[in-house]
Design goal:
The structure is a homodimer.
Chain A lengths: L3 H6 L5 E3 L8 H9 L4 E4 L5 H14 L4 E6 L5 H10 L4 E5 L7 H6 L3 E6 L2 H10 L3 E5 L5 E2 L7 H11 L4 E4 L5 H9 L4 E4 L1 H4 L8 H8 L6 E4 L6 E4 L2 H12 L2 H12 L3 H7 L23 H18 L7
Helix pairs in contact in A: 2-3, 3-4, 6-7, 8-14, 11-12
């Protein structure tokens, strides 16, 4: 059997590590790529000089391909893209913006382009814009999220039915069984954020990882639905946001949310380990994760668990 | 291979038709059971005399086992349970209440008891109460829904990790691929509501089925989060609810929602086909469904699609 995702990226396993601001730097991306997956540097939180440093570092740590994730809503997106292109990066994951903006530009430079979507309709727009593959990310995913609230279970088959390019499933996946489920639903590969956040090599602060280890199935919530929906780990900041959402409506709500969000919340929470007042972006599947191993261990376990899952599935449903 | 769900219910396929108020009467339940699954009469919307009529009718239509779903939040629950017991029903799905209330009583009468849950914590309580199996229902499911918003993809493995009784996955499943995904995640069987609502034999009004056929991936919404969360098909009533939710907060919000809900919304919408002012409960997966076939056709397609899905899954992830 062949696989369109491993072919597209020239990797061994159809497993992508999601680009995460403040969490996925050179160390994590290189570890994932070295282990046979596709590592991604999350450029969203990096000024060009920092991004350059991370790309050069990753190139020194692994000979395998890796990518860069660029959220297009930030003003620095173009500079980040050119910085990565100049350093020879050939794989771009774009998100949080229109796929029309940079796809043709990147393709002309010989790059592989993947865009992150949360709805089948946007997936079609991505295909029309000429991307090579799509990440279809469900409601359970951590961080910024679609307004449509379409879960991975219902999103993947609908995206697969609408496009004729490879689909990478994301949202709620942290095990080999989860990978098998997504391939069953029609995806060709998976992207995992939270599972790789919870590894030794990620740049998430130790405090954040330790708090996440204690999480329960309802320990995340979708916050700021009325402005910029984002899935957060429950903490004081998330509860304050919830309180504001329960108290105000309309424009007043939006103003209060923007004021309360302020600046540097994500950096303070995820990277500096400020657990009360920081913003802790994480996926709903976090409560399934009970340890912080190395990336190599995670990858081995995923591969093993996938094989075990497939071998225990009945060939047909008649008993 | 053997299967704990087919054994428990003495059926051929580990496929349960979800009990749905105003939708799953004798005709639907008997058709599903005759086709080798487990049909369920949704007693929630039935007075005892109507329930009796449906049970007797179903017994005349099929020789196969079928069950009754009893939402425990209604005052008539005990009467419904005794009515079904008197008529020889041996399979009970209870929901919307504590599993402690009737499980021992039903088990003493020799019945099989299954309770519907939306969180791993409640699943453990169900096991402790002595139920025979659990339905674990994700955020994408139609109708009344948990506050925790745990999606099927993250719920199933966490419930399976917590309990040592069989788990039936629900929420977002409408195809054989979806069944394969849920078995991969650790479930022993599946419950499908929306897929069976969209059949010739269901008692959903034709207007409702026709509107549902036109739905898009974002055509459902979770309404009344602050009172009784319920997933609805978008219509005028659902939009009015949304408007109220965007306008009021706190106790005023709860009062306005209760007032606006009024009575008979579900009957008027789902059973009488009042598309503007009725309440149309349906799952997010509805937009994947493009036809209203017979139950027998649905079952054949599910079995075929499952087999095809399993045969196309790679044995291991290395390419």
């Amino acid at each position: 059997m062949s696989n369109p995702i491993t072919k597209l990226f020239n990797v061994e396993y159809p497993i992508v590590q999601g680009g995460m601001i403040w969490v996925s730097g050179s160390k994590l991306a290189a570890a994932v790529s070295s282990a046979g997956g596709l590592g991604i540097i999350g450029a969203g939180s990096m000024k060009p000089d920092v991004l350059k440093e991370h790309i050069l570092k990753a190139q020194s740590l692994t000979s395998k391909p890796f990518g860069v994730n660029v959220p297009l809503l930030y003003s620095g997106a173009e500079e980040q893209i050119n910085c990565a292109l100049d350093l020879g990066v050939k794989i771009f994951f774009t998100s949080a913006g229109t796929p029309k903006k940079f796809t043709a530009y990147l393709k002309n430079k010989g790059a592989v382009v993947v865009h992150v979507t949360s709805s089948p309709e946007l997936a079609v727009k991505c295909m029309d814009a000429g991307v090579d593959a799509i990440v279809a990310e469900g409601y359970e995913a951590g961080g910024h999220n679609g307004r449509e609230e379409i879960t991975t279970m219902t999103l993947i088959p609908q995206v697969c039915a609408k496009v004729n390019i490879p689909v990478i499933a994301a949202g709620g996946i942290a095990t080999g069984a989860g990978i098998a489920a997504c391939l069953a639903l029609g995806a060709s590969g998976v992207q995992m954020g939270t599972r790789f956040l919870m590894t030794k090599e990620s740049s998430a602060h130790e405090n954040f990882k330790n708090l996440a280890l204690q999480s329960l199935p309802h320990s995340t919530q979708m916050a700021m639905r009325s402005t910029v929906p984002v899935r957060l780990l429950n903490n004081q900041f998330a509860n304050e946001i919830k309180k504001i959402e329960e108290t105000y409506t309309g424009d007043e709500l939006k103003t209060k949310l923007t004021e309360h969000l302020g600046k540097f919340r994500a950096m303070n929470g995820m990277h500096k380990g400020e657990l009360d007042q920081g913003e802790l972006e994480i996926g709903q599947v976090v409560s399934l994760i009970k340890s912080v191993p190395s990336v190599a261990e995670v990858m081995r376990e995923l591969i093993d668990d996938y094989q075990k899952t497939i071998s225990r599935l009945p060939k047909n449903l008649s008993f």
